Amino acid sequence: MDIQLDDLDxxxxxxxxxxxxxxxxxxxxxxxxxxxxxxERIKRLERNGVIQAYEAKLDxxxxxxxxxxxxxxxxxxxxxxxxxxFEDEVVHLSEVSACYHIAGNYDYLLSIEVKDMDEYQLxxxxxxxxxxxxxxxxxxxxxxxxx
Length: 147
What we know:
This protein has two domains: 7-47, Arc Repressor Mutant, subunit A; 60-141, Lrp/AsnC effector binding domain/regulation of amino acid metabolism (RAM) domain (Alpha-Beta Plaits, 2-Layer Sandwich), CATH 3.30.70.920. It has five helices and four strands; from the N terminus they run αααβαββαβ. It has helices at 7-18, 24-31, 35-47, 80-90, 117-126; strands spanning 67-75, 96-101, 108-114, 134-141. The chain has a four-stranded antiparallel beta sheet. A hairpin with a 6-residue loop joins strand 2 (96-101) and strand 3. Helix 2 (24-31) crosses helix 3 (35-47). It is elongated.
């Protein structure tokens, strides 16, 4: 079900996506509404599933996750049981912060966060390589994040 969003809803979403700790008063002042209608709009966005969660942005280096790797994975075979098996195993790996089923030359794109190259090598050897049905892995290392 598509939710109809107006300009004020989009402004609220933009503000909250930049800073989830903003209060109703600050948001109301920024969008030019009073507090009560702003609060009601935010609650409606939450109820309708547009706003799914509020998250904290972490300094990855300070928590021991200084190396970010984008890892493309192709599978040997694509029957439903093998796809589900791969997905079930990969989502339980603590190093994997996101997993996308993609179209193109690869089947999955994994976002992996580890301390350093040694930890990534250990992850590849001991965890990723132990998952059955993987045909190929291509790793790209994030040098900087722009957005």
